[in-house]
Amino acid sequence: LISDLKIAIAEMQKRETGSRFFFLAHSFGGLIALKYLLPEKKVPFEFAAISAPLLQVAMPVPKILIGIAGVLNKTLSRIQLGNEINPMHLSHDPASTENFLRDRLVHSKITPRMYFSMLEGMEWVRNQTGPLACPTLFLVAGDDQVVSTPAVLEFYKNLKYREKELKQYPGMYHEIMNEIEREKVFADIRDWSEKRAAVGAA
Question: Could you say which of 35, 74, 77, 154 has the lowest number of CB atoms within 10 Å?
Fold first, then answer.
């Protein structure tokens, strides 16, 4: 996935020459973003905004299911299993939930191979202390039922990097940009981008 991301970024740079870029990522995308930004020395982004990065799941997975997944990973690593995410725990906005349920591009499956790759990625990121390749804004849901907010806050606290900022949203579910009060999130991203743009122009 990191290799695919780098290809997409290179293509973006070819098509949008002269443009200014920032990196926005959410949840599993946030995990991928951090895996990309941590080892890189230089990136084409002026800053990143990372929402509820998947550094640990909110609800512990029963050991018996982990054991079964481990067996399947050795025999049927590509079999698709339910990811156990409750759509009702993504947003308090009924319209957003309805859109999620109707979206044909949304699926609720995961393979053992992907699951264990995610575990390895999450552990690797949690053990890093930075720095990051660009200034980064972290957006954290206060009542996240999917991603462990304490794990994200612990990572942020241990991140040895001056150009970081944290915004927390008490009471919001995982999909903060689809929440009822999402304008607060958008405003914070706009403020951060304007502040970084001013620094870049100075």
Answer: 74
Preceding amide of 131 cis, omega within 30: yes
What is the Cα–Cα distance from 98 to 43, expressed in whole angstroms?
A: 37
What is the token pair recorded at 43? Answer: 């990136």
Q: Distance (Å, rounded) from C-alpha 129 to C-alpha 194?
A: 27
Q: How far is CA 192 from the centre of its chain?
A: 18
Report which of 8, 6, 27, 20 is spatially closest to residue 173, judged by C-alpha positions.
27
Instruction: Determine the pLDDT at residue 199.
Output: 77
Closest C-alpha to 127, from 165, 150, 158, 153: 158
The Cα–Cα gap between 139 and 167 comes to 5
E-strand stretches of 78-199: 81-82, 109-110, 136-141, 164-169
User: What are the per-10-residue average pLDDT scores of the chain (202 residues)?
Assistant: 94 88 95 96 94 91 63 65 84 96 88 86 96 96 96 97 96 97 97 85 59
* Distance separating alpha carbons of residues 97 and 100, to the nearest angstrom: 5
What is the token pair recorded at 50? 């990372």
Residues 21 and 47: their CA atoms lie apart, in Å, by 8
- Residue linked to tokens 């794990």: 151
* pTM of the predicted protein model: 0.89
Predicted local confidence at residue 71, as pLDDT: 58
